[in-house]
User: Which sequence fits this backbone?
C-alpha cells in the first residue's frame, strides 16, 4: 500500500513522516537534510545549537555555552537550516522544533523563520504567541498537544489574536523520548495512551476546519503508520528510530547507548522543565537515582521554568549541561534520551536513512517488528 502524501498548509511532502526534533545535537542539519531528501519532513532541533559551532559562541572551561544567546545561537541555527536545505536537494521539507520552555523562545522562532525554515513544530508548553513571533513570514506552524483541550485553547487564542489557525497539530502520547506532556503517573494510564487520545483530538481538529493531525509517541513501524492513518491521522512523527542511522548528528557513543539498552533501562525522570523526562539508565542517571546531586551551577540560562538554575538544583541536574555532555561524547556524565521502544533498535543496528524510510513505507522488511495485534485494512 502506497502511503498518502502529507499536506501541512502550503507544504506537501511525498512521505507522511515527520522526523521528530531531538536536542542537544541529535537532529541537526545532517539528519534533517537526509530525511527531507527522502521526501519526508526533516526537523532541526533549536535546543542548544551553540554546541554545534563552538567558534560562534562564548563558552566556559567545560564547553558549555554562556547565556541563552550562546546556548540557542541564532547564527548556528540559521547555518543548520541552510545546510539542511542543501542536503535535501529541494525534496521534502525542513522544519525546526522549538520548545516553548526555552529562554528567548520568540527570538528563536524568528531566527528559524528568517533562515527559511518551512515549518515550526513547538511543544513542551503551549505556543500561544507563536504566530506573533513569525509575523510576516510564510512559514507553517504546528503546535504539539497532548489533549483536545489544549488544541482548543491554541485554536481559540490564535484565531482571536492573530486570525490564523495551526497548519497541522502533533498529538504526542506518553511513550515518546524526552519530555512528556503528562504527569508521571498519567503516563501509564490507559486513557492517556495515544490511541485513546486520538479520537477526541480528531474531533476537535475537525471543528476548526479539518486541521491535519500528526501522531507521535511510540510510533514504530509501517504497520503502526498504516493503523493510525486508517484511524484518521494525516501523518506520523518519529524520533528514536532515526537515532540509529549513519546520518544522525549524534556521536557514535550516543547511538551505541541506545543500541545496548534493554526495555527496563528506559525510565522516566523528574526534569528541571517540570515534565517527566524519558532517558536511558547510564552512570550519571544511576548516581542521580542514588541521591547524588550533579548540578554544576547555571551557565546557559536555557529554559525559563528552571528559574536560572533553581529547579535544576532541586532535581539534581541541568538538562542542557547533561545533554551537552552526551553530544560531546561523555558517557559517564551525559544524559541519553530514548522513546519507550528504543530497546528494539538492537535488532536493527545502525542503517542509512534511506533504508529506514524504505522500512517505514513497507518497501523492505523491518528486522525490529513485533506483532502488535492491530488489524489493518489495506485498500
Assistant:
Amino acid at each position: 500500500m502506497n502511503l498518502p502524501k502529507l499536506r501541512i498548509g502550503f507544504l506537501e511532502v511525498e512521505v507522511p513522516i515527520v522526523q521528530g526534533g531531538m536536542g542537544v545535537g541529535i537532529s541537526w542539519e545532517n539528519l534533517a537534510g537526509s530525511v527531507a531528501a527522502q521526501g519526508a519532513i526533516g526537523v532541526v532541533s533549536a535546543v542548544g545549537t551553540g554546541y554545534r559551532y563552538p567558534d560562534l559562541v562564548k563558552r566556559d572551561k567545560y564547553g558549555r555555552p554562556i547565556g541563552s544567546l550562546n546556548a540557542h545561537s541564532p547564527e548556528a541555527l540559521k547555518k543548520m537550516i541552510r545546510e539542511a536545505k542543501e542536503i535535501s536537494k529541494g525534496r521534502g521539507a525542513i522544519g525546526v522544533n522549538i520548545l516553548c520552555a526555552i529562554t528567548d523562545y520568540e527570538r528563536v522562532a524568528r531566527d528559524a523563520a528568517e533562515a527559511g525554515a518551512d515549518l515550526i513544530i513547538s511543544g513542551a508548553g503551549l505556543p500561544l504567541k507563536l504566530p506573533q513571533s513569525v509575523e510576516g513570514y510564510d512559514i507553517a506552524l504546528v503546535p504539539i498537544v497532548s489533549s483536545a483541550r489544549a488544541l482548543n485553547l491554541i485554536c481559540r487564542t490564535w484565531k482571536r489574536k492573530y486570525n490564523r489557525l495551526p497548519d497541522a497539530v502533533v498529538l504526542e502520547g506518553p511513550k515518546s523520548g524526552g519530555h512528556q506532556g503528562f504527569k508521571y503517573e498519567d503516563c501509564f494510564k490507559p486513557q492517556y495512551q495515544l490511541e485513546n487520545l486520538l479520537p477526541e483530538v480528531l474531533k476537535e481538529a475537525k471543528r476548526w476546519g479539518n486541521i491535519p493531525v500528526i501522531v507521535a509517541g511510540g510510533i514504530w513501524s509501517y504497520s503502526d503508520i498504516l493503523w493510525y492513518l486508517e484511524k484518521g491521522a494525516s501523518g506520523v512523527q518519529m524520533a528514536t528510530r532515526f537515532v540509529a542511522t549513519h546520518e544522525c548528528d549524534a556521536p557514535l557513543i550516543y547511538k551505541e547507548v541506545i543500541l545496548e539498552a534493554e526495555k527496563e533501562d528506559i525510565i522516566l525522570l523528574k526534569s528541571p522543565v517540570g515534565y517527566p523526562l524519558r532517558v536511558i539508565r547510564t552512570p550519571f542517571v544511576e548516581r542521580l537515582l542514588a541521591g547524588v546531586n550533579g548540578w554544576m551551577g547555571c551557565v546557559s540560562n536555557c529554559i525559563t521554568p528552571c528559574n536560572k538554575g533553581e529547579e535544576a538544583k532541586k532535581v539534581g541536574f541541568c538538562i542542557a549541561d547533561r545533554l551537552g555532555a552526551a553530544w560531546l561524547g561523555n558517557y559517564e556524565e551525559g544524559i541519553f534520551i530514548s522513546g519507550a521502544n528504543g530497546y528494539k533498535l538492537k535488532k536493527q543496528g545502525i542503517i542509512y536513512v534511506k533504508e529506514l524510510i524504505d522500512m517505514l513505507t513497507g518497501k523492505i522488511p523491518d528486522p525490529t517488528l513485533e506483532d502488535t495485534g492491530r488489524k489493518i485494512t489495506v485498500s
Observations:
- The chain is about 30% helix and 15% strand.
